[in-house]
Design goal:
Blueprint: H1 2-9, H2 12-34
């Protein structure tokens, strides 16, 4: 049983799918944290320069 799990998680397609989902989740979380505003909607870092 344990050997079958090792073979399952060693699958390249599964590893690629896992990494894709992981980075997509990070990207979506960043979008939701900072919002979908344009540059004129909020404070922009270069306004004071």
């Amino acid at each position: 049983m344990f050997e079958r799990l090792l073979v399952f998680f060693a699958n390249q397609k599964l590893r690629w799918l896992g990494r894709f989902a992981y980075y997509l989740l990070i990207l979506l979380l960043l979008f939701f944290m900072y919002g979908f505003n344009d540059a004129s909607a909020g404070s922009y870092i270069y306004n004071d320069f």
